[in-house]
Write a structure and sequence with these properties.
It contains eight helices and two strands. By secondary structure, it is mainly alpha-helical.
């Protein structure tokens, strides 16, 4: 009886991991592992051997995929581990302003930055992605960058989220002041 239970547990685990991995690209299984690791030295070594800004066949960078998995994978966006991983990517040269493909429907694609993605996916009631958005703005994400439709992140939330709108508005004004100098 015990062997049968263990068999079903292993079978269930393997099927679950296969489903998770097939939902995204080949990097997703590795990203899930990284997001649950506790060994910072191991994480640093992995990031030393990953090209964070190179796009895969889907037109997404590793950094974009990681943020997408954090956002949609049930990870705590404000946890120390999540914020550490994001900062570790920036420390290894991740570019927050790279345009990544965003597929809405088969055959229909757009390109946008990670800041666009975070802005669209932030829930105005909880603002759970604000800690990540703030790190992105502090680490050089351009709040005035346009997507393939010519829209800035602020254009995507103007009437939906007052707090995030103000943060992006202030960040945009800082960019304007810096550009005028």
């Amino acid at each position: 009886m015990r062997r049968i239970n263990i068999f079903f547990i292993i079978l269930y685990h393997c099927l679950t991991m296969t489903a998770v991995a097939s939902e995204y690209s080949d990097d997703s299984a590795m990203i899930h592992e990284i997001l649950t690791m506790n060994d910072q030295n191991c994480i640093e070594q992995i990031f030393d051997n990953i090209t964070l800004n190179e796009k895969n066949s889907d037109g997404e960078t590793f950094f974009y995929q990681m943020i997408r998995i954090i956002t949609h994978g049930g990870f705590d966006a404000s946890s120390e581990r999540t914020l550490y991983l994001i900062n570790a990517c920036f420390n290894k040269g991740a570019d927050p302003n790279v345009l990544n493909h965003n597929y809405h429907q088969p055959g229909q694609q757009e390109e946008h930055t990670i800041l666009h993605f975070l802005t669209i996916n932030n829930n105005p009631k909880t603002n759970r992605l604000l800690p990540i958005i703030n790190i992105f703005l502090q680490r050089g994400a351009n709040p005035d960058a346009t997507d393939s439709n010519g829209k800035k992140p602020i254009n995507l939330i103007k009437d939906k989220n007052c707090e995030l709108y103000q943060i992006l508005l202030q960040a945009g004004h800082k960019n304007i002041k810096l550009a005028k100098r």
